[in-house]
Amino acid sequence: MALPQTLPSPAPEAYRLADVRIRRCVFRRIATVGELRQGRDPVYEVHCLLPGLRAPVTIGDFGMATGVCNECTAEGTFRPDED
Cα–Cα 20 to 30 A to 44, which of 1, 4, 10, 21? Predict the structure, then answer.
């Protein structure tokens, strides 16, 4: 008969949110830019897909998009757990 193993729970710090983070939006698209290479972090590009825009608006990388997206005031944009 197998006995259940008890695994140590990870430290609470592992689940802490980043100090500065981008709010979760229902109209944002994130795409990788360039080739993914082993040993390097991928580079992402953020696009805004708000209804009423003629085409997706490229905001830039995560650093640039954080300020723009966190200041967005469009209604119904953010997921309910972000408000």
Answer: 10
3-state secondary structure the chain: CCCCCCCCCCCHHHHCCCCCCCCCECCEEEEEECCCCCCCCCEEEEEECCCCCCCCEEEECHHHHHHHHHCCCCCCCECHHHC
The Cα 65–Cα 10 span in angstroms is 31
Domain boundaries, the chain: 23-77
The type of residue at 29 is R
pTM value?
Answer: 0.63
Q: What is the pLDDT of residue 48?
A: 92
What are the residue ranges in the chain where pLDDT is below 50? Answer: none
In angstroms, how far is CA 41 from the centroid of its own chain? Answer: 15
